[in-house]
């Protein structure tokens, strides 16, 4: 008698067999989904070319030549996509950033000489045993087709509802790492750091991104202590546009802080780190503060340090907190810690905290410990105060208070225009702000100038290929469809200017 689908489904099946079935299913789905996506992208690029030529009013002969050039680029891009990219294609120049879950290196692509920032993430940390969540196969199947829009907006919903049978080893780390990769793929504007390639090996995941030699806002603030209101207006306005650009794509950043505001060679802001730390650091996990959550405001007291001592304490601890596994909750909105849910407005709270830090010299809730900071954030109505010895304008104070308030009353709840129309931004030319000179000029000697970054010792994260590799083969299915190559990486749009190639002054 022939076996029906229902009969086959009812047969007992081991977890190992189920996992192999899931891997096969996801592999096929990803293969055909990728083919469709590539076809759509080619059509979109062709339409974009035709539109640009029509707008320029080119003669037919010129159009034919442009189409021929474009066709050659498409052919070369297909050839590039079939080429397996790996560590051997890049020369590591210097470590420019390090965190608890990986590091960032300045690298040079051997065949082109182009300079990039390579973000390296250890798979072992993504599959940490003590933080394993259970994920159903149907859920992961949906996630792998468009993994991050849901994961970035509501990761707990995606990962903690087990609808049918479940498979272990897929954790929240995977959701956030896929968020990092997919947001960088989808975001193609001026306000987000551009990713050109992503790939993996047995040990690590790799994101190859544009190198922004201006460093980050954290380093700038540590050098300057405070910024003028004019400079603050410029950087906060650019960050408003950067945050709004990802909100328009349907994403929530959740980790807006000075460390994640990078500066390009002209000193303009670009947003980075979509998922590298969010949800991974203890500072983002409510259980880290579970013993403190029931303290009502009336029971709360805190050390009333003067502004000078606060600034000294903050500066002393700031960099250590940036690189620790604990992190700091200074910039996290109170609703993110609560289990009642949150939305994109949490990013505007974080921007208000950054604005306060720019003008005052330290964030409003800074303390000796992350736990104490958390208590101040949760009791912000009592702890958000402005020191009289550091005067700022009333319009600046008003905007900060509109950012750092209850979510339902927060500025930006209606639209981003609500923020743009605030009197603090009265003189801002929103349409052309990126074309104007930056508030603080960045001095860059060459494209591989790392003077705006800290020095880090070398590590063994990039072990040679013949080194002993951990056995992640049974778990690698959670990283399916991670590899990516950007078309613009071939056509050079958005890459470094010719005069700033490596080796040039």
Automatic annotation (TrEMBL):
It comes from the Eukaryota. Residues 426-494 form the AGC-kinase C-terminal domain. InterPro entries: AGC-kinase_C, Kinase-like_dom_sf, Pkinase_C, Prot_kinase_dom, Protein_kinase_ATP_BS, Rho-assoc_Ser/Thr_Kinase, Ser/Thr_kinase_AS. Its main location: cytoplasm. It is found in: Cytoplasm. One of its GO terms (cellular component) is cytoskeleton. It is an enzyme of class 2 (transferase). Keywords: ATP-binding, Cytoplasm, Kinase, Nucleotide-binding, Phosphoprotein, Serine/threonine-protein kinase, Transferase. It catalyses: L-threonyl-[protein] + ATP = O-phospho-L-threonyl-[protein] + ADP + H(+); L-seryl-[protein] + ATP = O-phospho-L-seryl-[protein] + ADP + H(+). One of its GO terms (molecular function) is protein serine kinase activity. Residues 90-425 form the Protein kinase domain. Its EC number is 2.7.11.1. ATP binds at residue 119. GO terms for biological process: actomyosin structure organization. Belongs to the protein kinase superfamily. AGC Ser/Thr protein kinase family. This is non-specific serine/threonine protein kinase.
